[in-house]
Amino acid sequence: MLDLHVHLVGHNDREANRENIRAFLDEASRRGLKEIGFADHDYYWEQMNFPLIREVAKDYPQLNVRIGLEAEYRPNEEARIKHLLEQFPFDFVIGSVHEINGWAFDIPEEEQKHWEQDADVLYQRYFDVVTQAASSGLFTTIGHFDLIKIFGVRPRTDILVLAAEALTAVAKHGLVLEVNTNGRYKPVQEFYPEQCLREEIQRRGIDFTLGSDAHCAEVVGRDLDEGIELLRQMGVHSIVGFLRLNKVRYSLD
Ligand SMILES: [Zn+2]
Ligand SMILES: [Zn+2]
User: Fold this and answer.
1) Which of 33, 89, 122, 204, by CA, is between 20 and 30 Å from 46?
2) Number of domains in the chain
3) How far is the CA of 151 from the CAs of 123, 148, 230, in angstroms?
4) What is the domain-level CATH number for residue 57?
């Protein structure tokens, strides 16, 4: 079991100090994880302390501690992200779309706007940006692939049609998609991505990883046993972690 989407500093809620790193690694150990991957939001770059994570990780030899980043993908900021990624030898990089043309759509204050616009157009605009993210060559992983459903708005058109181009880009570039369990605690109350997308992802031969999207230590590994069970029931035989941008495969059999 692995959790490759964990926010040590949350939304700038705490420092990346020894005590806080230990709290995350203790919880990962308690839950029996084999691998944990820190992936803080790139907004908090200045607060990160990768060398200290490496140092504290030495006290947890049974745990593969990976260091990644959750980068905000904006189409006109690829150079900025590329520059960040050159600063550290990351194990994995999650590209996430939380914004459409400068509209930070996933915060609670923005829910009303979701209901006011055409759902198909909303989904199309979102997946257009995801397609660009997947084609950018910057990432190993796309975060919460169908985040646009966060408030429960559903498109009229088949989601497999709306997401087709993005999935093609993900497959073409060998990217990985996460079963992100955090969606259950949002208004939509289900994991990202939804079941029919998970089935299509598997059909296309795209690899899965797992992420709790924990923004505090208590939530590390949350519901991932259920995520694994869902994948097993679909006939998925392995999931992937990362080491220095290379996939490391874990068998589910
Ligand atoms: Zn995110
Ligand atoms: Zn996240």
Assistant:
1) 33
2) 1
3) 12, 8, 23
4) 3.20.20.140
